[in-house]
Structure formats: C-alpha cells, structure tokens
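Check my protein:
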Amino acid sequence: MSKKLVQGVGINDANYNVKKFETVGYMDGKRKQVWVCPFYRTWKSMLERGYSSKYKEEWPTYKDVFVNEEWHLFSNFKKWMKNQKWENNQLDKDILFDGNKEYSKDKCIFIPRHVNLFLIDCGSARGDWPIGVNWNKDAGKFRARCNNGKGKLLHLGYFTDPQEAHFAWKSCKHELALQYASELEVEGYDNRLIEALKVRYV
C-alpha cells in the first residue's frame, strides 16, 4: 500500500518507521508517541511551511515559499541533512540569500536558534516606522531597540528623527552579527554562514 503524500507533495520513502508509539494504560490503552525521527520531523515541518494553506494564512510572509522538487523525496533531504551541523540547530532559508523563497540544498543551512531569533525582524508587525524604531508617546521621541537573539531587547536611546533611530538599530545589529560570526567560526560552522553574518547589516 502506497503511503499518503505529506502536504500533498512529499514522498516518505523511509525504510523504517519514522515514528514510534507505546501503548499506555490497561483498559482500552491509548497509543502515545514516544519518538520521531529528527530528519523526518524537520522535513515534514519544511513541507508544512511550503505547502500548508493554514500555515501560510497564519504566517503571510510564507505565501510564496516552496520546496525544491528534489526535496519532495524524504531520502534526498535526509541525505543532505545528515552532512550538515543540524543537531540543536534550525533549518534556515534566508541568511544565505536575503528574501529567498525556496527551500533547497544550495540555499539552506542550519543555524543556532538564538541566531535565527536574532535575524527575525518582525517586519510585518513594526508599523509605519523603519525597522528597529517605534514612537514613544511618553518621551515624545522615536525609540530604537534591538533584539539580541537571547531574549533581551536592547534599548538604544531616543531620537528626534526616525532614520537616526534606525541607524542606531542597524549599527547595533551589525556589531552583534560580527560577534556571532566570530563565535560560530570558533565552533566550526559553515563558512557561508560566517560570511553572510558579517555583511548582513552593512
């Protein structure tokens, strides 16, 4: 019996069970999932971002995102992922090619979660002002703040001009990006990621 396509396009050709369950309870025992193959979990999540109408409705920035046909086959994606620094990291499609809409082996890379959070700009939710800037009614000025990726929003000061506030944000992001690039280089991450971080906010 052929397996059902994942998100209408994905073919799970694994020769093993990608999920494991245990039966809990005595009377009418229920099955509880206790393990999911990390390669399958990442592949399935990627396909969801590329083809789930519900996901795209919730996250409009993914409207035009798609997955390269080669990665519609699970074994192709798994083969690539096994050769990446994937453990405890997240699949990213944007850092190497800004504005990229395609998940593919040439355009994707695994990055630490805190770096991924650092790169998120929340562009669709920032309102009318430049990125990193908001109007502070109490101060009567524009406030610049910067997300450091580690759960802290850095206060950079108040400005009379929104562009000056944005420049302060950009300078802070560049400084942090260089810091992360140095740290990841020491940890042996892909040089493409290192170089992309160095020029991200120039």
